[in-house]
Write a structure and sequence with these properties.
Structural class: mainly alpha
Number of domains: 1
Shape: globular
Order of helices and strands: HHHHHHHH
Number of strands: 0
Number of helices: 8
Radius of gyration: 18 Å
Strand content: under 5%
Largest sheet: none
Helix content: 55-70%
């Protein structure tokens, strides 16, 4: 057991451990800035198109919506421990968040919410989310962007789980619409940001 632990820590240098741990902490810290920026910044914008009104609210989709966070940080933890392109993934998290924050600061958006009249389990959970996640920081959708990032990461690393990651990402993106947390434009912009940023980091940052 001790020898396996020793081999694990010897799998990279002390310098590499410090760099990777620092990146992980930075990614977490940057992600937490979301809560500070999730507030009204005048003027407020609504990026709604006609088809958004045709999408129903389906509270059961709060399940994949909430599953996003353990999926994101579980992937980060896996990549960190396996030392599998972790730095590229961490940089992608940081860059995607910072780009989104630029929009939240200078082009703040919000999504109007209608009251939830049902009292089933999923409706109650969705109401808790509504109560704790303000209706701002919509464009681009970070749920969509970071989900697309994870899927792109698995594709770029040629993982056997790539198709599973793509399916999960699609489910999370759809969940942002059916929970009425985002509009279609928010989701599309998030997916575009996630794919482009992650692909560029893997393509241009081969030595990272």
């Amino acid at each position: 057991m001790d020898s396996r632990v020793g081999k694990f820590f010897m799998s990279r240098s002390r310098k590499d451990w410090v760099i990777d741990a620092s990146l992980f902490i930075t990614a977490i810290a940057v992600s937490c800035l979301y809560f500070i920026l999730n507030a009204p910044q005048e003027p407020l914008h609504i990026f709604k198109i006609a088809i958004d009104d045709q999408i129903p609210r389906l509270p059961i989709f709060i399940v994949p919506y909430l599953a996003f966070l353990p999926w994101l940080w579980g992937t980060m933890g896996f990549s960190f421990l396996k030392h599998k392109s972790f730095r590229k993934l961490a940089l992608a998290v940081i860059i995607i968040n910072l780009v989104a924050y630029g929009f939240y600061i200078f082009l703040q958006t919000y999504i109007p919410r209608t009251p939830i009249n049902s009292s089933d389990l999923f409706s109650n959970i969705l109401q808790i989310v509504y109560n704790n996640d303000h209706q701002y920081n919509c464009f681009p959708s970070l749920h969509s962007g970071l989900s697309a990032m994870i899927a792109t990461y698995f594709v770029c690393t040629k993982s056997k789980l790539a198709w599973v990651a793509i399916a999960m990402a699609a489910l999370v993106v759809v969940s942002t619409l059916f929970t009425k947390q985002h509009f279609i434009v928010d989701a599309i912009s998030g997916v575009t940001l996630g794919i482009v940023a992650t692909w560029a980091i893997f393509r241009l940052g081969k030595s990272i």
